[in-house]
Amino acid sequence: MADFLGYMFFSLLEGISVYALMFYIFRIDFMKYIGKFVIVISIINLQSYFIREDLSLQSIAPIINLVITIFFLLIFIRLPLIGAVLMTITGYLAFIALQTLIIISSDGYLSLSESQSFVWKGYLVQSLTGFIGFGIGWLLYKFGVGFSYEFEKYRYEWERGAIVAAGTVFLVALGLMMYFKAVFTNLLILLLALLISLIYSIKKDASE
């Protein structure tokens, strides 16, 4: 239980760093959506926890995380497709660059091998990345540094249909993975989360 709680908490700090950088770089108020962020980050971390021992699934975990993030931005934040993809890629790249810089600056003290040997060092890397990433993002937003939010003009009429179609395909793919892989609990969580998101998107579009 302690391992699970530690993993979820410190991964949440990392996730907040990703999303803070993602939004603040594009001069969007991150704190406005903090509740939704915590939910989607927890879902991503939960599925990552369950598949961390499965090397075949670990290789595709980053792709799954990117897809979940894009769907989240499309469905709950209501961003256009181009904006969601661009923000997701930018946020994750900024996060990777920051964490790499922290590890390199430690002169081997927080290296990957050290973090694997000493769990607390891994937690320290996650904490530093979380707090520093959020701090950098907040400062960028406070001083108006970053890209202007003008994605709305790139919204296309076919996007809603494409989102539903892509979501359906992704759900089917996850269903097949559940059938052929022994990671039922993990993929069931993802399946239910995406199904709820898809239903929410359809109802939201219908109400508009």
UniProtKB/TrEMBL annotation:
Transmembrane regions: 6-26, 33-51, 57-77, 84-104, 124-141, 162-180, 186-202
Keywords of the record: Membrane, Transmembrane, Transmembrane helix
The UniProt record lists the keyword Transmembrane helix: yes
Protein name as it appears in the record: DUF1275 domain-containing protein
Annotated organism of origin: Cohnella silvisoli
